[in-house]
Input
Amino acid sequence: MIPNHSFSSDEYPVNCQDRPDKPEEACGVFGIYAPGEDVTKLTYFGLYALQHRGQESAGIATFQGKEVNLYKGMGLVSHVFNESILSQMPGDMAVGHTRYSTTGSSKVVNAQPAVVETRLGKLALAHNGNLVNTTTLREELLKRDCNLLTTTDSEMIAFAIAEQVNEGQDWLEGAIRAFHQCQGAFSLVIGTPAGLMGARDPNGIRPLVIGILEGSPQRYVLASETCGLDIIGAEYLRDVEPGELVWITDDGLASFHWSKEPQRKLCIFEMIYFARPDSVVHDETLYSYRMRLGRQLAADSPIDADIVIGVPDSGIPAAIGFSQASGITYAEGLIKNRYVGRTFIQPTQAMRESGIKMKLNPLKDVLAGKRVIIIDDSIVRGTTSRKIVKALRDAGATEVHMRISSPPVTHPCFYGIDTDTQDQLIAATKSVEEIGQLIGVDTLAYLSIEGMLKSTGEDTNNFCSACFNGDYPIAIPETVKRSKLILEKAVPA
Ligand SMILES: O=P(O)(O)OC[C@H]1O[C@H](OP(=O)(O)OP(=O)(O)O)[C@H](O)[C@@H]1O
Ligand SMILES: NC(=O)CC[C@H](N)C(=O)O
Ligand code: SF4
Ligand SMILES: [Mg+2]
Output
């Protein structure tokens, strides 16, 4: 048997300065309750489908009664696990995680699931999101002699639950009391010897879905996105609701609405970029939603040109929608090297300068002599766009018109997406015209907030869109704000 807390390496060889110039990912969480099935392998595949949500570390905890087998390491799911490791982790239930760190550095000790001992046995917790009250929560836990081992907000949630359980609460009441101490975004999958828990914060910022595996009795799966269900052949049942806790045991699935004031504030960035296009949200794939964004963009900001191209991968659905609505031919103008990892660091300055060629190579004979409309889902720092525009011109494009299928990103995220500080966001300090000049396009237009929200077909109040308008649905303490917002930084404390 492999020991608990087996680590494959000590530290991820990438520091914060080396992080890519783009919106980074949220984490992926997965859980399965399926006695008699190979839950370990199923979790591995679930995490494989959720790899895009976090590439820093991966981990799986399996439960066999009160015994917990934990294995986690730095890197991609396929690097961390192999057949031999998985075969040494039997269980009836499992919890898995792919991480992109937001609170607590990118070290193996901070990798998840976080496993904590209680009087009722161990719990294993996987968290997607970010708490905004970590300073006070940490102080409170330390005051009560909590033996925090890591610097993550996720471990604090695990300890807060353990504390309640050790004071006499059962798993459910202990978890609910702990959730009330947490402010911020949390979609959680928690394994315990008594059953599997799934929970979302009262605003439902990050997604979490429930699936069913065929067979009798019914077996349940929890995953950040439906693509995590599809890969193992599980059927989508429904979302875990904001402020809901689901409790999965031999008796089936029980639901508890633990928050008095739940509201729907799903992260709109999940819809436009983070989640996989084949994941289903509000009864349709995000591919369809993103195509609609492109159609809306064509209606709002038309321009005459010879071809429409998308920036692979995330800009493609909107480019197809733009082409359909405008009648301008869709073409592939950039080919992506699918083997370049998202966190790949180029070793020399020259390679970094031409970085875009590592990932995207222009098709000269498609582009030469053409007036090109290029569509992307977002501009964050603007570095990617500038390189792409230069590459298109070098390839012979006579005009380059950029259309973005979301509004300008003006504010950082505090809820589990590690966007830069506000001063790094190009649209926080520059007008659309200035951005157009900086990235070197003939024209630039963004989709409006109304266009982005209206295209969801849902009540437009049902989303967090704070990175586009600064309207944060969960209050952020002043000190936390000052760490990322330039406007607040300028105001004396
Ligand atoms: O900060 P910026 O330089 O403005 O970058 C923004 C770009 O980064 C992201 O794509 P990514 O490179 O992650 O690739 P993907 O679309 O394949 O996910 C995003 O979709 C934009 O295309
Ligand atoms: N991106 C996330 O969801 C991160 C989860 C958690 N805050 C961590 O840093 O581990
Ligand atoms: S601030 Fe932006 S990225 Fe963060 S949760 Fe809200 S919409 Fe999503
Ligand atoms: Mg992209």
The longest helix spans residues 286-300. The chain has a mean pLDDT of 91.
